[in-house]
Design goal:
heterodimer; A: 187 residues; mainly alpha; two-stranded antiparallel sheet; 7 helices; 7% strand; disordered C terminus; B: 347 residues; 12 helices; 10 strands; 47% helix; globular
Chain lengths: 187, 347
């Protein structure tokens, strides 16, 4: 098996990660593994905070470079047009600057979110303002279903899963409203 | 509600009643939200944080469920009061430090609490006594929905509610239960159990002490993943796993009572005795002894002690609470004495 990063050497370091029953694997040759480990160790904070605190976020920030990104510097030139956060800022703090950053850094965030959550499609509630009008919704659903068919036919299963989740989220029934708990007896 | 009233009262979540309240002390759900078009608190400038704070205050004032709630500027609070709020589990330690443009809203009986400008613009939480995640969610969802009418939240259809840290994006929901597992610790099964649930999507953190060295046998179990799952999925998964942990603790308790009842009783009564007689006692020792007494109450070995009282004591023995009680700053030695007095008077 060849190294996922350099595609040259034999992979001897095998990393696997399990989140919510989903396994992700990375295979590296000794050289690439050593380089990345040194880089990650330099960024890892020792704040001793809880598991998903800043330290791990920084480490994950550096791990995004391990993914295969497009030719050229892997996101180094990226910055947010709204708040000015640069990719370097994000890697240092593990925090984004504003909502727009998510679009500006989409390319590097997608693999990162996949690593953290094992998913890249929101399946929870949506703000009322976001809910499309019924006709619009039907159009979008129809379009998504077409795309899903095409993705399955082309065997792009990851894309198919993403589309399936999006369809599910749109088709989800509205949550039932419950009443506020009654005042309890004092004492 | 005023600050004084808050200090004197006991939060609803400490009642000590509710489903499985012997093992599950409390259930908590937290939502992270940000206001559209404004930079996140730690990256933005001060005037922007002030703007967010103003808009949140306006939304809160019109929110039905938060009527009569206490709105506090962190800047205006004495340090002891800020620490008190941390000890009450109403704000995080980070929120108590560096008061610049930070606020907290505390609802009736401390059920709902809202941090403004912590890591995200809004951190909404609901705390319930016992194993009560569903009710907590029902309340929290309504508060969040109401606020959402006035405050457009930062959101993308692909990635859900946007948060400062990518680990919270999507539902922005962190559900947790505080559980008391003395017998799993005593029978040395705790690491196995915690390890197993970690592989199934939960994180486990000791509430007192460092890392896995949890004194007091209290643990906070919460979900890890927030994106790609619905809120109901997160709740269901956590409920299922917590139920299993509860069953394991119950089994361990039965086994210990069957196999070494006398040794167990001896430990429990010695703990009770020490708490009732000590004149100087550290919080570490107190937490460990109170844990045993709590077990004793659960097993009906110690009559006449109310679980709610024990829950309150866990909160009141902490440094800021003691100093507030005394009305002045105390050295660690003075706190040890004050703590011992509180225990002697209460038990």
């Amino acid at each position: 098996m060849t190294c996922d990063l350099c595609s040259k050497n034999e992979a001897t370091v095998h990393l696997s990660e399990v989140i919510n029953d989903q396994t992700r694997e990375l295979h590296l040759c000794e050289q690439c593994a050593r380089e990345k480990a040194a880089e990650a160790a330099g960024l890892f904070s020792t704040s001793g905070e809880q598991l998903l605190g800043g330290g791990l976020a920084e480490l994950l920030g550096s791990l995004t470079d391990l993914g295969k990104l497009a030719a050229g510097t892997p996101g180094a030139a990226l910055s947010c047009p709204q708040c000015g956060l640069t990719y370097e800022d994000f890697r240092k703090s593990g925090r984004l600057g504003c909502g727009k950053c998510y679009e500006a850094f989409h390319r590097v965030l997608a693999p990162l979110l996949k690593r953290i959550h094992g998913s890249t499609q929101h399946s929870g509630r949506t703000p009322p303002a976001q809910k499309a009008k019924p006709a619009q919704l039907q159009d979008e659903l129809a379009q998504l279903k077409e795309q899903l068919k095409a993705a399955v036919a082309a065997e792009s299963f990851e894309e198919a899963v993403r589309l399936r989740d999006r369809i599910r989220a749109l088709e989800a029934k509205p949550r039932k409203t419950a009443s506020f708990p009654r005042k309890r007896e004092s004492g | 509600m005023t600050l004084e009233e808050l200090v004197q009262q006991t939060g609803e979540w400490l009642r000590g009643t509710g489903p499985s309240a012997d093992i599950v002390i409390s259930s908590r759900i937290r939502l992270a939200r940000n206001v559209e078009g404004m930079p996140f608190p730690q990256w933005g400038a001060r005037p922007q944080r002030a703007e967010v704070k103003k808009r949140v205050a306006e939304a809160v004032a019109e929110c039905r469920f938060l009527k009569g709630s206490l709105v506090l500027e962190m800047k205006g609070l004495a340090e002891v009061d800020r620490l008190l709020l941390v000890e009450r589990h109403l704000i995080s330690r980070e929120h108590a430090a560096g008061a610049d443009e930070k606020a907290v809203v505390v609802g009736d009986r401390e059920i709902v609490a809202l941090m403004v400008n912590e890591e995200d613009h809004l951190r909404l939480q609901v705390l319930q006594s016992g194993f009560n995640l569903q009710e907590a969610w029902d309340v929290l969802a309504q508060v969040s929905d109401e606020l959402e009418q006035k405050l457009p939240y930062s959101f993308l259809p692909e990635w859900g509610y946007l948060t400062a840290c990518p680990t919270n994006v999507g539902t922005g929901m962190r559900c947790s239960c505080m559980v008391h597992l003395p017998c799993l610790v005593m029978t040395k099964q705790i690491n196995r159990v915690l390890h197993a649930i970690t592989r199934l999507g939960l994180t486990a953190r000791g509430l007192y002490g460092e890392g896995t060295e949890a004194s007091g046998n209290f643990f906070q179990l919460s979900n890890q993943v927030t994106l790609g799952v619905s809120e109901e999925d997160i709740l269901d998964n956590l409920q299922r796993l917590i139920r299993q942990v509860v069953e394991q603790e119950e089994a361990a308790r039965k086994a210990l009572v069957n196999q070494s009842r006398e040794a167990l009783e001896d430990r429990i009564w010695r703990a009770y005795g020490t708490l009732k007689s000590a004149h100087l006692i550290t919080s570490e020792e107190t937490v460990n002894l109170l844990s045993l007494v709590r077990l004793g109450v659960d097993l009906a070995l110690i009559p006449g002690v109310d679980r709610g009282l024990l829950n309150r004591l866990f909160i009141q023995i902490q440094p800021a609470h003691l100093q507030r009680m005394e009305g002045k700053a105390l050295t660690p030695a003075q706190r040890d004495a004050r703590r011992a007095k509180l225990l002697r008077d209460s038990l």
